[in-house]
């Protein structure tokens, strides 16, 4: 590696010196004659030729001849001097051009890593696949999962996990592509249609676009009780101006959610907000003691009985739904450390952490 950079620096210096040297030689050379002088002389000759052929009147010939002659005299009197720097200045410019790549090379040797070997993508991928999933960041996990999808092209699950990793990497377009591949293999899965709709919403900065609504509709065709699809379709109705119809859908969803579902209080608050009325005093608020007690109870139970992967997924999702980012991240870190060797649980935790708060 170090030999390569030294060669690059030497070549860059030589090329810079050659270019500036040739430019200086061209600038110092005698200036060529003005190309406009032959043009005006040719104009005069053409005027005379046209007059001799009777194509222009004598008066027109005199005026055109006088104008062309005036331009010829003006051009002949104008002298342009080229850039003719002295030898010392030329040497200084060449030296400066040569020092630039040398300085860059020296800076790289001081603060860079010239001895660091190349790491081809295949080598890095093999290293990532050998590491526990909890130690990988989202882009690395996505790279690993892309290789898994290539090995298992007929399995929709790797594509689903890939969509989660792509979403965590901040690339909803890639997540949508992965979900479309999963749906090509398993078009009957409502959860995949819901995830696709949410990925399309992320691409549209939260807007329920026609494409996202179509994905949610497909989810409902497979599972009429799909909660996320029902919620977002109703929100789309509300945003489109059909407030009462959307609220009716939200109230129906609220009635179908289990009593201990952490999304209930958030949905109740959303209904109250859209209804433009005061929130019912009996309806729990986000952060209210009742809700906090419910989540704290789940956290306390997991602290006493931590061997419950589903419980950890529920706790992370509860914090995410309620918008408590600090608690979500803390619970996620504990759960990831505990289930570092279980890729399925880690994927479920990542999906739970990516849950958007219901507003």
Tell me the layout of helices and strands.
Elements: H1 2-28, H2 36-52, H3 58-77, H4 87-111, H5 121-130, H6 138-151, H7 156-168, H8 172-185, H9 190-203, H10 210-222, H11 227-239, H12 243-256, H13 263-274, H14 289-304, H15 309-322, H16 325-338, H17 343-353
Helix pairs in contact: 1-4, 2-3, 6-7, 7-8, 8-9, 9-10, 10-11, 11-12, 12-13, 14-15, 15-16, 15-17, 16-17
Description:
With 359 residues, the protein is mainly α. Among the domains are: 2-72 and 88-111, no CATH class; 287-359, no CATH class. The chain has helices spanning 2-28, 36-52, 58-77, 87-111, 121-130, 138-151, 156-168, 172-185, 190-203, 210-222, 227-239, 243-256, 263-274, 289-304, 309-322, 325-338, 343-353. α6 (138-151) runs antiparallel to α7, α11 packs antiparallel against α12 and α15 packs parallel to α17 (343-353). The longest helix has 27 residues, at 2-28. The radius of gyration is 37 Å and the shape is elongated. It starts with a helix and ends in a 6-residue tail after the last helix.
In short:
With 359 residues, the protein is mainly α. It has helices at residues 2-28, 36-52, 58-77, 87-111, 121-130, 138-151, 156-168, 172-185, 190-203, 210-222, 227-239, 243-256, 263-274, 289-304, 309-322, 325-338, 343-353.
DSSP, total strands: 0
- Biggest β-sheet description: none
Shape: elongated
- The end-to-end span amounts to 54 Å
SS element count, helices: 17
Query: Percent range for helical residues?
Result: over 70%
Mean pLDDT: 78
Please report which band the strand proportion falls in: under 5%, 5-15%, 15-25%, 25-35%, 35-45% or over 45%: under 5%
H/E series, N to C? HHHHHHHHHHHHHHHHH
Poorly predicted regions: 277-290
Given helix and strand content, the structural type is mainly alpha
Gyration radius (Cα, Å) is 37 Å
